[in-house]
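## Example record

The block below lists the input lines for one assembly entry, exactly as stored, with component labels intact.
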Amino acid sequence: MAAVAAVRPFEGEDRHVALAGRLRAVRAATLALLEGLTPEDCMMQSMAEASPVKWHVGHVSWFFETFLLETGEPGFRPFHPRFRELFNSYYVGVGARQPRGWRGLLSRPALQEVLDYQHAVQQRLLALLGRGGLPAQALDLIELGINHEQQHQELIVTDLKHHFWHNPLRPAWRGSPAAPAENAAPAGFVAFDGGLCEIGHAGPSFAFDNERPRHRVWIAPFELAARPVSNAEFLAFIDDGGYRRPELWLSDGWDERCRQGWEAPLYWWRDDGPWHSYTVAGDAPLDPAAPVCHVSHYEADAYARWAGARLPTEAEWEVAAAATAPGPADDFAEGGGFHPRRPGAGRLAGLWGGVWEWTQSAYLPYPGFEVAPGAVGEYNGKFMINQMVLRGGSCATPRSHIRASYRNFFGPAARWQFSGLRLARK
Amino acid sequence: MAAVAAVRPFEGEDRHVALAGRLRAVRAATLALLEGLTPEDCMMQSMAEASPVKWHVGHVSWFFETFLLETGEPGFRPFHPRFRELFNSYYVGVGARQPRGWRGLLSRPALQEVLDYQHAVQQRLLALLGRGGLPAQALDLIELGINHEQQHQELIVTDLKHHFWHNPLRPAWRGSPAAPAENAAPAGFVAFDGGLCEIGHAGPSFAFDNERPRHRVWIAPFELAARPVSNAEFLAFIDDGGYRRPELWLSDGWDERCRQGWEAPLYWWRDDGPWHSYTVAGDAPLDPAAPVCHVSHYEADAYARWAGARLPTEAEWEVAAAATAPGPADDFAEGGGFHPRRPGAGRLAGLWGGVWEWTQSAYLPYPGFEVAPGAVGEYNGKFMINQMVLRGGSCATPRSHIRASYRNFFGPAARWQFSGLRLARK
Amino acid sequence: MAAVAAVRPFEGEDRHVALAGRLRAVRAATLALLEGLTPEDCMMQSMAEASPVKWHVGHVSWFFETFLLETGEPGFRPFHPRFRELFNSYYVGVGARQPRGWRGLLSRPALQEVLDYQHAVQQRLLALLGRGGLPAQALDLIELGINHEQQHQELIVTDLKHHFWHNPLRPAWRGSPAAPAENAAPAGFVAFDGGLCEIGHAGPSFAFDNERPRHRVWIAPFELAARPVSNAEFLAFIDDGGYRRPELWLSDGWDERCRQGWEAPLYWWRDDGPWHSYTVAGDAPLDPAAPVCHVSHYEADAYARWAGARLPTEAEWEVAAAATAPGPADDFAEGGGFHPRRPGAGRLAGLWGGVWEWTQSAYLPYPGFEVAPGAVGEYNGKFMINQMVLRGGSCATPRSHIRASYRNFFGPAARWQFSGLRLARK
Amino acid sequence: MAAVAAVRPFEGEDRHVALAGRLRAVRAATLALLEGLTPEDCMMQSMAEASPVKWHVGHVSWFFETFLLETGEPGFRPFHPRFRELFNSYYVGVGARQPRGWRGLLSRPALQEVLDYQHAVQQRLLALLGRGGLPAQALDLIELGINHEQQHQELIVTDLKHHFWHNPLRPAWRGSPAAPAENAAPAGFVAFDGGLCEIGHAGPSFAFDNERPRHRVWIAPFELAARPVSNAEFLAFIDDGGYRRPELWLSDGWDERCRQGWEAPLYWWRDDGPWHSYTVAGDAPLDPAAPVCHVSHYEADAYARWAGARLPTEAEWEVAAAATAPGPADDFAEGGGFHPRRPGAGRLAGLWGGVWEWTQSAYLPYPGFEVAPGAVGEYNGKFMINQMVLRGGSCATPRSHIRASYRNFFGPAARWQFSGLRLARK
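Predicted structure tokens for the full assembly:
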């Protein structure tokens, strides 16, 4: 976010330069994710919701080509006439799309050709920026594209983990996670006064449309747990029959548990001995003091009920987070571990990074929410139904991508994100 | 609501008497719904979500038998040892249940036996009340059971309409709807200041747990349409390609539209000529000035987007409704038409009765919401996910059942309730 | 079959008289099935494949009205203009049809109205016959209609048993089955020479089109078990892990077993003690010496493999049966037990009636098979795929309906018919 | 078949030598199929029924490793301890298996590692053969493995075509098909006497267990079309409303057509102009004189009914084919075109190769059929249900693989094989 903030103050040519720098940095981060992966690894698609790495790489360039080059580059010609269709995700306004569940069938173009595409689009975009004089609207779109690419960086990690999980060899594709901190953060609750507060984003720095406008909310006094729920605590829930007691669950949640046969968080397994979980470094024993991860909203909600607490609202979370900011010690993608570490010290340990924290808030428009005109307006608004808000970023989120007003969202049954929970109570 | 209010002021024995009177009145209203129906009519089940009439009749007595007689009647013996299982809806804490989609397979007990059950439970309950001295908690449960029965009265109407719809004979089972009012209410918007408001129910009079506690919310200034959207207005949406333009729809809504092949509200049909709709009095031409009905949240939301407006939040709706109350001229179940009429005059015409109005609010717990202990606590809380709030009652709601804080809720794809919409804008 | 045979020899007016007699007898048998059933019982539909009793009753009259009265009655007017659609089963050539899975939603017409329909069609048909002079083609259609009604008599029993099974009260709707014979038929095999044989029906007496033409087949020497597999024998298969050993099953059969969770034949259940089964007389202990019943082709095939034998082909079965005929001691619908009894003595005990016997033959057209022109030609031919042949009739088949060449057919997963098996070996 | 026939006559050491030669030749043919494919191409899986190329390559080596090396190689150690699970197709007796629909998620092992596996198994198998002295049973298994690999060669082609079809780029991965023959074979029928015939395989040369034993069948006189149905003829069926007339279809076939929305054979498409089809050389105009291909049994059956004919039985086909043999001019995999050519001249043109010809025979065991003991016995027998027989081989079948008694089989809805039809009539 520091980087983003640095961009805005200097309008005019300086913003062109700053954006070019960010473009290069984001691109480098995307490419770094591909290290150690083969073209075959980048083909896998384990479910319609999780795309192949290659498709993600093509799609983030498609965004720049379609929304920037196509409208802003003199004498624009597409890199490939069919890529507009191949790499469109869900923008109905842009035209036909490869069906979501068929993305894993794109052996052609080869990964190398997609990397060439990415490089070419990058160069043409940098050339455009280099010439200067772009209208503010185009610069805003570039900034949106940079943030869009960061979102797909996180999805590359979570989707890939899901794909690899279906291989009984349980491949390791990143180094071992960092050794856990010696001391885990203590439990307990922090009290907040609430009152007439403001949440949402204001001002010129970048934020997604769904974070705007900043608006007033009334919040009753509340308490927020000093750290996320840990694996050890979640194990106590399991051992207490948490997955066998319908009275702890939302009705839809219980149905889902039965349908899917859930007995533990995603990626957990055990033979006769203790629980393990699959990580980007392969199978590993569970660290009791690390945050529980890969739980659905349903499981988070059931846990909270079992614990005599509840999930926070997104407004409570944001108000509590407003006084802090993601820092270099937090557990973000730049660390490269891609597995939530024990949270460090601090009043609200693990608030930033580590695991996304489920809230009890449905993902809905803020009062006065407005959608951007044109296809780019499909970015967020049309998904504002049947989803719940998560806050705070995860170990797979770039540090510069997150902020207090950031709203992530997934359906209540989703488990393949790095999703955990922090308790709240009145 | 008047009736409910009348009960509470006189605590002690007087409340026993008042509740006995209400029990008799509610029972009479349930039985009146069965007029003109055969035992075969009361067997039908067209989908898992819509129960047979006979099952509804058994279930409302099951509620009283299970939660009142079983715990409060000296020497209690069940009317039939298996009814506890047959007529349990979703109370996991009570034990086994006939699967929801199999309720239409209960040819035995016969309708007459279920009516005998209802009568016996009623008599025993009245005897219990007649003896007096029941603890407040038991009286509260009776009041809950009365309101519970009223909810099922509405479901009897909406479910039955859905069942009959699958019969190509399109049976008429109630008299023709009342002749429409000569003049429809005018369009336009009414402005509200918002500010720091209170919503939810407080005080001793009856309300469901989901309406409590009363709490403060901040509301920005807003406008609410002077009447619900009419059939004529909704036809303009259809004629403008509303069902063919994905950009007007939420993403999940568009998927549902495609999956179901929706081209118009439920129960609408036409051959070569103008649109008709199936009503409880059989097929009838569409009244352009009546409120559009049997639309899902998805359709309501798409219409609002098309109209350059939005759905209200439940807080906005409640604040607007707080100054008014359901009155004798409003279109409720007591009128017996079971089809929404043209709204009459008034500042917010048709706010009460007629059609339930979809809001843009997800059905979630209010701050400080608490669930009752025991199986009866499964009443509302466990459904607080994946559903949207509707407000104001319909032509099938008993007048005494509704109030400003009342929260109805259905999934965003549901269409078989009498559900319409009223626009809001900032 | 005796009755049918009696019809043909006296052509001309005598055939009119004979058919009128059979019509009356078949109608009486249909009505006898309704004894003890309420209109509600006749509404149930537990799956798309099993129709409500009321629908069966309407459909058999629809057959006569559509194929006889509509074409043959001077000045024909339909009993009800919509019954043509309501009671059409699968005759595409006749026009629209109530969807198969929605037959349980026809509360209107009431059962009484359907019985009136049946009576009226019967009277008009008898009047037509009384006038005499009908062409042979019309008389053939009446004979087809009589046999068609007998088929639906059996389906009334099997479908109703399936519907009632979903009611936890396990209703009994017929008297207790006859006391079992003291001595069960002995096991063992009967040897047959095979050679160049003829199967299929020839001559003027009635048979369905799928039994024609009579044709030559070469059959190798084979042996057929002296009686059907018994419950005791099937229990040994279960106790030997028959439902847990995929190597005993066809691949599709094993998949189906897993999908459905089969652990025993349909309608079998037990708590802690011995196995019981649901019968038309309610729950009853299993008779070890009675034929096993309500097994799918998959289970029959797995049992045979476990027993070191195989199912017979339909040609083997027919050749073995050709020398015998259904007799008064056999276990047919006229006995009213509707539950397979212990087979009596005889060289091939229980060959007729009791349980249908699965063969290893797919239901395919005989060489030279020809379909009747017009909609009535949809009777059999279009189902000749994905089904297996069963032979010999069951305890729910009318005795006069069965013959050696009779081919019944169901998909290999079907279990709700009275289906068992008899072993064969080379 | 010539090659196979060449193996058997010289028993003892000579058979070792001959098998080693065939092993090398078959391996070379498998590797030749990979030319022009990238590792990404070899990853695709478009449906559970169609496996990735890489999986096929691993599986054919798995067969040799599991059934030959594991039991016959002194001091056997598996190439990789988990490949036994990864590359098991459906042999329950061998243990756990990667779920069929997840084969496309095996990015690891890489294609190169699978090729290394293939090479290592080949070398070890050749060493085993080189040492000589293998029991006849082991030599039989090697011969089975060779034929097994040839079956997977054909599946590599048909599955890959299906995978690529989901890529809107419509990749071409083989050269253009050969120019069509100038003159198409003439239509007409050839008459056969039938009588007491023999079908099935006898003698020492290789055949699958499902082709045995040779046995007698009685066949009535019949006629077989002089060539397969052509694209032009099938177009006439389409133009005559063939896909809109339920009376032409089997009931299950019509349901499938409606469910899938079939309007033409698989891989056919058109915009405004004439029909095209997707081929291994990319999109191409339809050759009217080439055999129609990629039709299901349902479509073949409907076409035959429309044409006033029928499909042949497998016995008729085999008797007609017995006097001929696949020759060098026939359209087989060795030609490399992988697209059916116009049939050449001859009395029964196109009988061998080109397209598999659907028969009206269900895939069932021959009289006296016996399954091999052990897991290898799962090869054929357990699939003998719900499938129909195809005969004659296709343009993707190796010439040495086919013979008159060869029985291919697929479900009646399958279309992705090179399947066509030849008419028969009585």
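Residues 8 and 204 of chain D are 7 Å apart (CA to CA). The first helix of chain D runs from residue 2 to 7.
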